[in-house]
Amino acid sequence: MDSKITQLKKYIDEAEIVAFFGGAGVSTESGLPDYRSRKGLYTEMEGQKLNPQEVMSHKYLIEHPQAFFNRRPKKDRVEPEPNDAHKVLAQMEQAGKDIRVITQNVDGLHQKAGHRFVLELHGHSRTWYCMECSRVYKPEEVEKDEQNIPRCPIEQGIVRPNIVLFGENPDRGILEKSKETISKAELLIIAGTSLTVNPAKNLIHRFKGKHVVVINNEEIDTRNLKVDLYIEGKVGATFKAINK
Ligand SMILES: [Zn+2]
């Protein structure tokens, strides 16, 4: 076994509480795009001359609801499945390890793998809600109007996924729990994220524990944070190696 993998395993074994802070790079091995990378959503949307920051924003939803809900799905899009990162973390938790996931992803793959402690900073799309009356709907049961915009039958409000769009704030409760989780952890694993956006940057500085591990394809900005172990590589492949 690679000495870095051995070290990561040792850190996990020794820590009572492990905080796993993950970003888009955790799900790329499940076939989901990382819009900051060349092969991500950005290139997929180039034909439309809009970048995902513009499209996946509060402003765009309000001003162009029809376009927002009628984005062309990628042709070869398949239902994403948990990869080795999601699976091995969930297995560790099931085996009794206190692994607390904080994710910037909205794909729900940690839960799909069976993980119980998951804080979703940017929400999820398991439930949708009416922007007028806050009634909650399952995505498959939402009725659509003639423009294919999901509508609440009661107030005619737009029904939207429970995800945090650009220009919107994360749920305060989730944010508070994330701060608490990071400040209690003995080991912090930062994986598949560039840490360039808030609240990620502020959150990780709550850490008061022993060791910080970074798993990423490229170097990230960890100013003011002492990194004990840096693993350059894919997150799923790293956890697969731990499990061997
Ligand atoms: Zn409503």
Q: N- to C-terminal separation?
A: 8 Å
SSE-based structural type = alpha/beta
Q: Estimate percent helicity.
A: 25-40%
Strand count: 11
Protein name: protein acetyllysine N-acetyltransferase
GO molecular function, one term: NAD-dependent protein lysine deacetylase activity
EC number: 2.3.1.286
Keywords: Acyltransferase, NAD, Transferase
Verbal overview:
This protein is α/β, with parallel strands linked by helices. The chain folds into 3 domains: 1-32 and 80-122 and 169-244, Rossmann fold (3-Layer(aba) Sandwich), CATH 3.40.50.1220; 34-76, no CATH class; 125-163, SIR2/SIRT2 'Small Domain'. It has 10 helices and 11 strands. The chain has helices spanning 3-14, 41-44, 52-55, 58-63, 65-69, 84-94, 109-112, 172-184, 200-204, 235-243, and strands at 17-22, 98-103, 118-120, 123-130, 136-137, 143-144, 150-151, 159-163, 187-191, 211-216, 229-232. Strand 2 (98-103), helix 7 (109-112) and strand 3 (118-120) form a beta-alpha-beta unit. The chain is elongated, with a radius of gyration of 19 Å. It starts with a helix and ends with a helix. Mean pLDDT is 89; it is low at 38-43. Bound molecules: zinc ion. Zinc ion binds at residues 130, 132-133, 135, 152, 154-155, 157.
Which helices and strands, and how do they pair?
Elements: H1 3-14, E1 17-22, H2 41-44, H3 52-55, H4 58-63, H5 65-69, H6 84-94, E2 98-103, H7 109-112, E3 118-120, E4 123-130, E5 136-137, E6 143-144, E7 150-151, E8 159-163, H8 172-184, E9 187-191, H9 200-204, E10 211-216, E11 229-232, H10 235-243
Parallel strand pairs: 1-2, 1-9, 2-3, 9-10, 10-11
Antiparallel strand pairs: 4-5, 4-8, 6-7
This protein binds zinc ion.
Zinc ion is lined by residues 130, 132-133, 135, 152, 154-155, 157.
